[in-house]
Specification:
With about 90 residues, the protein is of the alpha+beta class. It is built from 4 helices and 5 strands, in the order βαααββββα. It has one domain: YaeB-like fold. A hairpin with a 6-residue loop joins β2 and β3. The longest helix has 9 residues. The termini are far apart.
Length: about 90
């Protein structure tokens, strides 16, 4: 089981009205990292995992691997296909 650590920035995002409205919680963020639809490895050591949020939105999670597990830097909702397409097409 992976240990997830959150940056101050990532933790503070859970308090934003948009995030609350979309009902994004730690469980959802961690699920995207465990089973991403797509992973962008271009900007190593920071990775971006993209997973489904709802019918029209994806959830993007930026993270990096740490000694103790995974450090989540930030996350954000994005229009479905916006980032997936760029990654799959090689930018």
């Amino acid at each position: 089981m992976k240990v997830f650590e959150y940056s101050w920035h990532a933790l503070s995002k859970f308090e934003l009205s948009e995030i609350k409205k979309l009902k994004i919680d730690k469980e959802h963020v961690e699920k995207v990292i465990r089973k991403p639809k797509v992973i962008d490895k271009i900007d190593k050591p920071v990775l971006m995992a993209i997973g489904e949020l709802n019918k029209t939105l994806s959830l993007c999670v930026l993270y990096k691997k740490a000694k103790q597990g995974i450090r989540i830097i930030t996350f954000f909702p994005a229009e479905k296909g916006r980032y997936e397409y760029k990654i799959l097409q090689g930018r």
